[in-house]
Design a protein that fits this description.
Mean pLDDT: 78
Number of helices: 4
Order of helices and strands: HEHHEEEHEE
Shape: globular
Low-confidence stretches: 17-38, 156-160
Strand content: 25-35%
Radius of gyration: 23 Å
Largest sheet: 5 strands, mixed, barrel
Helix content: 40-55%
Structural class: alpha/beta
Strand order of the largest sheet: 2-3-4-6-5
Number of strands: 6
Distance between the termini: 70 Å
């Protein structure tokens, strides 16, 4: 009988540990969501208030191809307004919309990851449509630039 109680106590202890782990993970998930909403609001403020460096998809691709370090000096840490043609429009990680921006001459593409609240505007785009995105960040890996935290215009020449 004592042996059965010892085994039951061991199983109960494992259950408690698993329960605590679930609670901790749920807390991390909730806090992560709150932090993301704060980050998105901060990014939206930056996009609305800071002046932007204007460029086309072709200009960015050429700059990164020619000299990635010089391109980073020119574009990193700045709000960018990038013009191109809408290519594929997909849902990325976490449900965020992504637009493949194509250069006017068809020579290359840059992906633009939009903020989550841009979904309805992205849904209204059509492939081949001229698009300008206003982005808070750019990153590159192996000379493949990617625009992050982007917004689409609400009206002509107006970003929110």
């Amino acid at each position: 009988m004592a042996k059965q109680q010892d085994e039951s106590a061991k199983r109960g202890g494992c259950g408690k540990v698993a329960g605590i782990a679930v609670i901790v993970l749920a807390g991390v998930w909730v806090l992560g969501g709150i932090a993301q909403r704060f980050d998105d609001a901060e990014t939206a403020g930056k996009l609305a208030s800071e002046p932007a460096v204007q460029a086309t998809v072709a200009e960015i691709l050429t700059a990164y191809s020619a000299n990635e370090l010089a391109a980073k000096d020119r574009f990193d840490g700045k709000v960018l307004e990038v013009r191109g043609k809408a290519g594929m429009i997909i849902e990325g990680f976490g449900g965020k919309p992504i637009i493949a921006l194509e250069s006017a001459d068809g020579s290359g593409t840059i992906n633009a990851g939009l903020l989550p609240d841009e979904r309805s505007r992205a849904s209204a785009l059509t492939k081949g449509q001229d698009v300008t995105v206003r982005c808070a960040r750019i990153t590159a890996s192996l000379t493949d630039p990617t625009l992050l935290d982007c917004r689409l215009p609400v009206a002509a020449n107006q970003f929110m």
